[in-house]
Each structure stands twice: as C-alpha cells, then as structure tokens.
Input
Amino acid sequence: MKFNDYKYVRPDMDSIKVKFTDLISKFNNAKNADEQYNVVKEINLIIKDIDTMFNLVTIRNSINTADEFYNSENEYVDNTVPVLQGILVEFNKALINSKFKEELKEKVYPQLFTLAEMEIKSFSDEVIPMLQEENKLVSEYAKLVSSAKINYDGKILNLSQMQPYMESKDRSVRKEAYEKWSEFFKENESAFDELYDKLVKIRHTIATKLGFKNFIELGYLRMNRSDYNADDVKKFREQVLKYIVPLSNELRERQKNRICVDSFKYYDIPFNFITGNPAPKGNKDWMVERAKKMYAELSPETEEFFNMMIEKDLFDLNTKPNKQSGGYCTFLQNYKSPFIFANFNGTKGDVDVLTHEAGHAFQAFNSSHFDSPSFIFPTYEASEIHSMSMEFITWPWMKLFFENDTDKYKFYHLADSFLFIPYGVTVDEFQHAVYENPNMTPDERKKVWRDIEKKYTPYKDYDNNEFLDKGTMWFKQGHIFMDPFYYVDYTLAQICAYQFWIKFNQDRKTAWNDYFNICKVGGSKPFLEILKTGNLKSPFEEETIKSVIGPVKSFLDSIDDKAL
Output
C-alpha cells in the first residue's frame, strides 16, 4: 500500500470510552502481572489505531490547509485529543497503582511508568475545554502562516518560496525579499499578537488550575523531561553565552569579510559566499534518487528503510500553495510507516531537511518493534540527536547533491549549525521569560525578544526595518506558538550530533554502531540514559561543550572560506 491508499476513519470516542472502561476494570481485577500485561497490549492496539487516524488528518491537513474535509477533521482532532488524554490518564492511574508494578516494569520498561506519572500531573478533566481552545489556537496559527501570498518577481509566493530570493547574490534583491517577507508578518501583526497572547494566558490558566505556579513546570512535564529541569537548561544557556557566542560572532565577522560588505545587515545573514550559496543541482525527484543511492551505500539498514519510504510514497517534499510551512516527520502506527513532510525551495536547506527528517524516520522505523506507541519516538531532545547527526553522517555523499560545491556546502553546513545554537537558546530564554510573566503586553514581549536577541546574536542589525527591529522575528518560529519549550532540544542535540561527527571522522564502524543503538532503543529510556546507550556525553556538563568546540573550530579554520 502507498500513502494515498491509507484509509482514514474517524475514531468513535463513545465506543472507545466504553472499551477503555472495560479494559481498566479488567486490568484492576487481574490476578497477576501477565494478565495485566495482556490488557496493556490491548490498550496499545487501540491507541495505535487512534494515533494513526489522527496523524493521517495532521499530514493531509498540513499538505493542503484549504482542504475542507481535513480542515473539519482537524477541528475534530483538536477537540478530541484532550478527551482522549483524560481517558488515558485514567489508565495511567491504574498502571502506576498496579499491585504487580515491579513485575510489570520488567515487561514494559520503567520509562512507561515515568511517562504515566508525568501525564497524570499534567491533566485533569477540569482543563479539557481549555486544552481544546489551546489546540484551536495552534491550528489557527498554522493556517495563518500557510495563508501567505506574497506578490514578488511576477509571482504569488508563500513564505518558503521567498527563501531563494533572500539568499540572492544581489544584495538589493535580498533586502527587498526580506522586506516583502516581513511585510506579511507586519500586515498580520495584530493577529499574531492576539493568537500568542491568548495561547500564553490559556496555558498559564491551565497550569494554575493544575496547581503549578506558572506554565514552565507544566511545559516541561508536557515535554516529558524527567531527568533534567529548567535550572539545568539555564546553566546550558549560560555555557552557550560563555563558549559558543564568542566563536559565533567571529564566524559572522568572517562571513562579513567573505561576502565583501562594509556593514553586516540582517538580510546578509543567509548569504554566505560571494559566488552564491551552495544549492542542490537538481529537483526533488533528482534528489530522492541520489538519496536512494546514498542510503544504499551507507548501510544495509538504511537501504532497506529508504527503499520502503520510496515504495510507499511516504514523502511530501515540494512547497506549494496552501501548504503548511516547515518540515517534520511523523509515524503511522498501523502501517509501521514514517512520513516526511518538507517544503523544498531549491536551496541547501532541501538537502538538510531531507537528511534531517530521514534521521527521525530511520529511528522510528527501527523502533517500530515496540508494543508501546509511547516508545516509537523518544523525548524531543533525544529525537533530534538522530536527525541532526544524520545530517553529518551523510557528509561523504554530499558530492551527489552539490557536485563541485561540496566543500562549500560542508563549510556552510557546519558553520550554520554552530551559528544556530545562540538563536536556539534565544528562543528558549524568550519562552521562559514569557511564561514567568504571562501578563506582559505584546509590546513588552517584543522588547524582551529583542533584548535577548542582542545578548546572543549581537551582530543582528535590522537596518531600516523598524518592524523587525522592535522584536518580531519570532513570529515566524512555529515552535513558540505550537510546541512551547520545544526548541532548546535542537541545541542540546546539536552538541550530541557534533560528538557523532567527531566519532564518524575517527571510526565510522564504531560510530555507526553507537548511532544505530540509540535508534533501536526508541523512547524506552529517558534522555540521559539514551546518551549512555550511544556513548555520548551530556550537553549539560561544561566539559562537553568545550570538547566539541575545538574540532569544530579546527575544521572551519582549516578552510580558506574566501576561496569558496
């Protein structure tokens, strides 16, 4: 079966409630751990079916946000997920109160109990209407961003299609493209402000109703962060400021000299070489064919995986009107099928997103053996290790995509990934500030963003763009609206991905075994235990950041970037 043949049937929540009630009763009355485990397996099958249907809605709605049927079904999902969460919490309560808890842990992994406890703390029936409203607002944000229709270069373009112009060799084109791009956000400023204001306040209300001081602790529970907290993340941000920001500022200075500008402006940020940025030398089908060859040569496991993705047509890669922005990977449980969503636009980012999302998909494919749907993906910061590392693991095959620009790509990719980290913690610190002070006005939030931005990325000069200079660049960052606190995960994972990059340069066989091992454990372990499985050092340890900076700097310093 191909993806288009996957059938969607709306889950009947009334019958599901009845089934769950019966199964929970059966679980509580079980005479031993084996009987309880059999109930857990029955419940897993129901969850997998619901999850499959909801993910089909998400995928098909994001491919075309103007599709009336899937718009309607997406509203149903938004309203139903909190109800389902309530049903699952009742089961989780039975699970953690099991008379055979210790025996069950040997059958289902202790992590299932950890996840259950966090789910219970983050929910009550009282907040269901507020969760439904939160989901509705998130969907409104996605539709608003995908509605962009920018009249430029004689075409009507969406936000993603503006990217090639924003990377143009012609500085005046870059500036004009950025102004057109930001004009969309400016025209909709009040809508973005209102959406986020409502989201912040409703999340704060949910948190206080559940007994929390503010949304931060609840946000961490929702992210299933069980082995570190906001203080650990704060210390990590401080290390980024101390060790990474100085080098990132040096890299921007190198870029300024490389592209021959007297004063570095915000519209120069995406432009890396006077000869033009590296770009793949073909279209989507051409890239998929080369990716097939790459994954066939990388390992037998990646060959099997990628051939399956092609055979089942588990991609939607080209950008088009009414398509949601960004890229993601999800998993369709009933079919054991990952799905990759992207917005190719002819830039280097097409290859990055392909290898990145393939890392997620490969991991999920190799975790599909777990009975528990909770273990298909690990927590986000661990998930991003698979994706960000895959970007580097595939370096030996980049010539397939970039041909004579391969060295240029590698320099750009490594430097860009490093320069991303200060931006990543900017997003994180902003969210902490917002949820610590939920009554801030939109203008106060914008000032907070701009102040944090100046701390971590002091080179950002918005020239005469008053709209961006007042602190609105975060409007484009969907995670801030849709997945609160999901962003520092990329920076934590980047430090781990550098460790894999270093290991692959030293001993590819051993490094591949470590990588494959963390793919196979899925979400059956928490973040810090997954690191141990892959022989990785924790990014929360100061020595870890220092240990990866040396090899990164050494590689970048070894390249005569002005010659590229």
Notes: The first strand starts at residue 150 and ends at 152.
